[in-house]
Amino acid sequence: MEEPEVHPDLEHIAFLLGRWEGAGVGGYPTIESFNFGQEIEFGHNGKPFLSYVSRTWLLDDAGDRVKPLAMESGYWRPQPDRQIEVVLAHPTGVVEVYVGEVVFHKIELQTDVVARTASAKEYTAGHRLYGLVNGNLMWAYEMAAVGHPLTDHMSAELKKVA
Which residues are known binding-site members for heme b? Predict the structure, then answer.
């Protein structure tokens, strides 16, 4: 089957399409700092949204994979006037709806809705920044959780691999 054409509504976020891999750093007041590897894949089926899957794993000091960390999946939905909605689900029992804006190759998102299952850890808000810098996808994530306000949590630099 032939790859469908990219929907015209995706024009300003089409730079995200493909598979990205790289590494980053994480930490939070309640945990020790850590290094992680990551793979993100943005896809499309010809409709006006991107599908999204992210996988991370803990890296040791040599850069080798130690164990799986977080996963998330969802959809990136461009809106008029360069606005964007992102819907994400996590296997930890959290669902997030982000709203934000696309300015050239920079996307800034903040949570509009956070829903948690009864067994999920307390998580109340997130703020994400994505940008294309010298051909690499850079991102940073702040979260408000377990009694802390929005605080730096993770950031990474990813290279396009497919």
Answer: 30, 121, 153
